[in-house]
Amino acid sequence: MSKHNLPLTPPGLLIRQVVPSADTVMITTAPKAPEACCPVCGHASHRVHSRYFRTLADLPWQRRTVLIRIQARRFRCPVAECPRRIFTERRPAIATGPWSRRTGRLGEIQRHLGLAMSGRAGAYLAERLVMPAGGDTLLRLVRRIEPEEPAVVRVAGIDDWARRRGHRYGTMVVDLERRKVVDLLPDREADTDAWWMAEHPEIEVISRDRSAAYADAARHGAHQACDAARTNDPASEKGHSPQTIAPL
C-alpha cells in the first residue's frame, strides 16, 4: 500500500524529519502551499513576515504519542486598506483554530469519547488509547459542537419526566416522526406547555396522556392541531378500543 493511502500527517504538510523515541514520535513538517489568505479581507499573500514552530498532538502510532511540529508562517497582507497588516496562516484541515494544541482528527475522536462516556470515564479510556485528555478538556470539546438547526415538529408527543422522582417533574417534548427529544420544559404546568406550543404553530398532531394540564395546554396553545389523547386502558393496546383523535 502506498504512502498516499496511509498518510503520517494531515493533508497539506510536507514531512521534514521523523524522530521516534520510546514513548513519542516527533514529526517535523512544513506547509506545502506557498501562500496564505488573510482572515479579514480574504486576499492571498506570498510575502512571509516571519516563521515560528507550533506543536500539535496527533493520532497515536504503535502505542506512542505522536507530536507534529509545524513550521508556521506569518504573512504581510497585500491590501493597504486591510486593518490586519500581519496575519498567521490558518489550516482548518490541520487544526481547528490558531491556538489549538491538537489536530482536528484527534480532537474529533476525543470529542466522541466525551459524548459517549462523559468526562472522567472518557479521560480514563483516552489515556488507555494513548490519546490523553483530561475530563474537563473532553467536556470542553463537546460544548464546542455547533447545535443543529431546529427541525419543524409536525407530530409532537408530550409527557412528564422526573428531575427528582416524587418531587420535581418537567415536560418532555418529542418529535414522534424523527423519534427525537426536541425540548425539556422546567415544569408540567398548562401555561408553560401552552406557551411552547404557541411558539411552534407548525404542529399538526399532539400525542399526550389524559392529564388535564396537557389537555388544557393543547386547547389553548395549539388550536390548529389534532389532539391524540393516549389511554392507559390495556384493551386499547390490543386494538379493542380506539384512541381519541379529535381536532381542538
Mean pLDDT: 83
What are the secondary-structure elements, in order, as H or E?
EEEEEEEHHEEEHEHEHE
Largest sheet: 6 strands, mixed
Radius of gyration: 27 Å
Oligomer: single chain
Helix content: 10-25%
Total helical segments: 5
Strand content: 25-35%
Number of strands: 13
Q: Residue ranges: pLDDT <50 for 5 or more in a row?
A: 1-6, 233-248
What strand line-up does the widest sheet have? 10-9-8-11-12-13
Q: Quick one: overall form?
A: elongated
Protein architecture, described:
- With 248 residues, the chain is an alpha+beta fold.
- It has five helices and 13 strands.
- The chain has helices at 104-128, 135-143, 190-198, 212-221, 234-237; strands at residues 13-20, 24-31, 36-37, 44-45, 48-61, 64-76, 86-88, 155-164, 168-175, 180-185, 205-208, 226-229, 244-247.
- Strands 10-9-8-11-12-13 form a six-stranded mixed sheet, with helices on one face. Strands 1, 2, 5, 6 and 7 form a five-stranded mixed sheet that branches.
- A hairpin with a 4-residue loop joins strand 9 (168-175) and strand 10 (180-185).
- The longest helix has 25 residues, at 104-128.
- The model is unreliable at 1-6 and 233-248 (pLDDT under 50).
Quick structural gist:
With 248 residues, this protein is of the alpha+beta class. Helices cover 23% and strands 35% of the residues. The chain starts with 12 loop residues before the first strand and ends with a strand.
Brief descriptors of the model:
248 residues, alpha+beta, Nucleotidyltransferase, domain 5, 3 domains, 6-stranded mixed β-sheet, 5-stranded mixed β-sheet, 5 helices, 13 strands, 35% strand, elongated, disordered N terminus, disordered C terminus
